[in-house]
Amino acid sequence: MSLLLGTTITVSSNHWMMAWTGLEINTLAIIPLISKSHHPRAIEAATKYFLTQAAASTLLLFSSMTNAWFTGQWDITQLTHPTSCLLLTTAVSIKLGLTPFHFWFPEVLQGSSMTTGLLLATLMKFPPTALLILTSPSLNPTLLTTMAIASAALGGWMGLKQTQIRKVLAFSSISHLGWMTIILLYNPKLTLLTFYLYCLMTSAIFLALNTTKITNLATMMTAWTKIPPLTTTLMLALLSLAGLPPLTGFLPKWLIIQELTKQEMTPVATTIALLSLLGLFFYLRLAYCATITLPPNSSNHMKHWQTNKSVHILITTLISLSILLLPLSPMIFTTT
Fold first, then answer.
1. Where do transmembrane segments lie in this chain (predicted)?
2. How far apart are CA 173 and CA 108, in angstroms?
């Protein structure tokens, strides 16, 4: 309830103090969820998350106070002072985990459970994204484009060498944030659409991984025996997150590249499209491991055979939408 309250306050507020209050409520609400397992790794993740978010909230409050000092305005959309704009970009980048402020996110996600990781990767990113969209006319285009390309590059490069699924999904989130940020100034509605589709695909993958108890590549190689249909559709959901046509994940990348081309930013569009190939490689590796019938080497993990045949209807609905939503793109065009 506190998470929903904090998100609602931040998204619906016009005053900087109310937005800051909502972000603080969110931070304080998620910390018990991260540390509830009482494992040292979880306590470390909760501490890292708290320190990072507290520093980002302080910067955001300082930014709004500086803007109010020089302009006399506490309205979120009236952010006009250059120093305040720079501080706000830094604060929101820390909260989201954009490069070069990404270091905390993979570690926190790895120390959390799958359900808490899902909240960190989706719901907790909504309020900072909303603040970015509200202040987008005042932000520096060069700085945002540079950070977006760096995030797409780092998310792809660092995801290549990971064996822990949660860390792979963390760097995937950083890469997708780069795609959202690069189009923010030119088409904010497209940023929101990309965020919604990312949340849809990530929720489907996290819930499927939680159902099959997959935590790393080794357990993924032997998980096909538990629920074979779910593992097969998980492979398609991973490829959709990678942005392969004709799956749902292709839609936001297609629209973003089209919009960048309209803005005469063809080199930027080419660069970020090529960088997405790095992410495609590790998604293909995950998809291959999800559907492999025998592990390539001896495994110490116990093999299960049809341990749980029941799959929650929410998982099947989310996976179906994350795979088959592309034919509905004309309807999405008209609503956005």
1. 15-34, 46-66, 86-105, 142-160, 167-186, 192-209, 230-248, 268-290, 311-333
2. 13
Kindly list the domain boundaries of the chain, sorted by start residue. Answer: 1-114, 140-335
Q: Where are the alpha helices (DSSP H) in 213-265?
A: 217-221, 228-242, 250-262
Backbone angles phi, psi at 201, to 5 degrees: -70, -40
Q: What is the pLDDT of residues 270-280, one digit of tens each?
A: 999 999 898 88
pLDDT tens track for 64-91:
999 899 888 888 888 888 899 999 999 9
Buried residues in 301-323 as b, exposed as e (16+ CB within 10 A): eeeeeeeeeebeeebbebbebbb
Residue 242 CA, chain-centre distance (Å), reads: 13
State how far the alpha carbon of 190 is from the alpha carbons of 104, 106, 287, 289, in Å: 27, 26, 28, 33
Three-class SS of residue 164?
strand
ω before 100 within 30° of 0 (cis)? yes
Q: How many residues can be counted in the chain? A: 336
Both tokens of residue 284?
Answer: 């293909």
